[in-house]
Amino acid sequence: MLDTMFEPYCIICKSKISFGKIVCENCLKKTYAPSLTEGDFKVYHYGKYEEPLSQLITEFKYNSHPKIGKIFGEKLAYFFLEVKLSQISTTMCLIFLQII
Ligand SMILES: [Zn+2]
């Protein structure tokens, strides 16, 4: 019984996950949906503000999950590398979550 009480599960989809994790890989993949809006400035979007990303942000903001902060940090670092910000010739780049 104790095994099931402390069995880790994804905070988004409630599927079983390995110890030390807080979100399953499937939900994590769904949070990343990069896009670009061009106008006076180029605006890069990490993902759309919809589930499961919105759920993850809500958990981070209101339920104090430091592991989610680490996930966001790692994902944003990966995003910065992928868009190669150092090679972009604009004077300013903004990166936001896209609210639809
Ligand atoms: Zn999940």
What does this structure look like?
The protein has 100 residues and is an alpha+beta fold. It has one domain (23-98). Helix content is 39%, strand content 17%. It contains 4 helices and 3 strands. It has helices at 2-5, 25-31, 53-62, 66-83; strands at 35-38, 42-48, 93-98. Strands 1-2-3 form a 3-stranded mixed beta sheet, with helices on one face. The longest helix has 18 residues, at 66-83. The protein starts with a helix and ends with a strand. The model has no long low-confidence stretch (mean pLDDT 78). Zinc ion binds at residues 10, 12-13, 15, 23-24, 26-27.
- Number of discrete domains: 1
- Unreliable stretches: none
Please report the distance between the alpha carbons of the first and last residues.
43 Å
- Quote the beta fraction: 15-25%
What is the helical fraction, as a range of percent? 25-40%
The Rg value, from CA coordinates, equals 16 Å
Helices, by number, come to 4
Name the structural class: alpha+beta
Question: What value does the average pLDDT take?
Answer: 78
Q: What would you call the shape? A: elongated
Order of strands, widest sheet: 1-2-3
Summarize the helix and strand pattern as letters.
HHEEHHE
Bound molecules: zinc ion
Largest beta-sheet characterization: 3 strands, mixed
Secondary structure tally: strands: 3
